[in-house]
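Below sits the subject:

***
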Amino acid sequence: MRLFGTAGIRGTLWEKVTPELAMRMGMAVGSYVDGDTIAVARDGRTSSVMLQSAIISGLLSAGKEVLDLGLIPTPALAWATREHADGGVMITASHNPPTDNGIKVFNGDGTEFYVEQERELEELYFSGNFRKARWDEIKTVKHLNVIRDYIGAVLDFVDHETNLKVLYDGANGAGSVLAPYLLREMGVKVFSINAHVDGHFPGRKPEPRYENIAYLGKLVEELGVDLAIAQDGDADRIAVFDERGNYLNEDTLIALFAKLYVEEHGGGTVVVSIDTGSRIDYVVEKAGGRVVRIPLGQPHDGIKRYKAIFAAEPWKLVHPKFGSWIDSFVTMGLLIKMIDEEGKPLSEIVRENIPDFYLTKKNVPCPDRLKGEVMGRVKEILGERFENETKELLTISGVRFNLTDGSWVLVRPSGTEPKIRVVVEAPSEKRRDELFEFAYGVVSKAVEAVKKEKN
């Protein structure tokens, strides 16, 4: 597709995401979605008010009534869409740098648009066959504050009070308007950092990967808190440190919840993205469930297709009993409940339930126009290297080699940034390092080779 990637439309302001694109997309969404009312919200980026205004103009031109929800996290927009509207639009670039922005579109049940819907919407966008409301059909913009109601819904679902101490890092993002208040309503003693909204993201980079939030480990020890929670720019992603200041691997967090849901259901299917690791399979299969891997950006598609009881990507967890969207607020509430009810520190819960595997991730910069040719070369070279030890080859969202010793190597083009991602996991650090050095070298050399040929 020309506009939609793995997480809606996303890119650099003026180069890809413009007011013109936003207004035209508003016209397309207004023409595509059945029903009268569309909810619209934004994150705290400097360009989000401008783009939201353009989206709203497009929706009004198609005869839709607009609910302006203002600056709220993406999970709150999804919930409010289900409760109050026939569709939803979020202006956000999620964890991307402040130079970027984007658009996500939601169905009336709060799910992100499925792949086929994005394809149809894109065709409509380029065709220009929009509905044009007559002057007397143009409706109004209503302003609605849903933060308190959304907090109440999460509290009712989690159904737990506690006196744990939590360090919260909001990344100067949209979660800052909601998370501290939710935690306090649970009885948590909250220590906040980067918890005022600022579209320049002065506190740290908005993506909550370890290298951007490593300082939280030391703060955990200094403050004596039970855990630390970090979000991204629009607060759908969540990262966690335990009470010792140790970062929880993203797969470890997924595995904890996968185990919880499979045990609760006495089995069931868990869907996870192609870049997740073996510890998830271990705990799910041991608990009597099964794991299905799906392309990145499609947890909602996976839930629908496989009737999954839980779905996740790194940092992004979906709790279908609450709603079929990524929701870090439900995740943090349930994690705190888990720690409290177990009566054990988080590090001990992890040690008792989740096995150790060794994983490394790193990106190789690569222009979008070269990704296809680079991936073709990488697949061929890795295929030759792993020919005699490949147990399974997966070609969704890139190429993944599952090897006979339990290791796996994934190379995939980013759907949101000019990068190719390399992920390696193995049962030992030595094996992981050997595989990663080889795979990362192959990708780096392929990118440079293709660049030279194209120049």
Summary: The chain has 15 helices and 20 strands.
